[in-house]
Amino acid sequence: MQLFRNLAESFRRPGIDLGRAFPWRLADRDMPKFIVMREVPLIHRIELGIEAMTAEAAVERARRASRAGTLWDDTAAMPLLKAEFEEVDADGLPDFEAREVRDFPMPDPSVAQTKCEAAAWSLLRFVRMIDDLCDDDSLSGNRYPCEIPADQVCHIRQLLRQLDVSRHSRRVPSLH
Description:
Oligomer: single chain
Strand order of the largest sheet: 1-4
Number of strands: 4
Structural class: alpha+beta
Number of helices: 5
């Protein structure tokens, strides 16, 4: 009990910064900005299906496709069989680092890419739902009379607006 009395008494002393004593009190002040980063080494493993006379010829064909930028095209002649990232043992790596900045920079293009990939999965689910709703028996002329749930349409419109904003931000990567 004496511990609590001593603690309460110490906060009554002049010169005690209650903002420092209680960090949650900083919410009504301008707080410094930090960029926090952690680098984790990864292995990017891809596997392609290549028909060739020898292993060396198959490897050379993959090298040519890589130089030409067609490695990811996933064609019948060179199907993409695996594309995965695996973290290399990160136990010996330093923990997170932080550096103070005046303002946050524009997001890196990788952020737009990640948002686009996440949106693509939502759009695919939406298209599959429409496919399920519109059966061939209900085809009338050149239209399917299917009813799309309003919440799904709102969700898709929100995704499209986000993608539109990402498209107009600087340094956004092009998607093939």
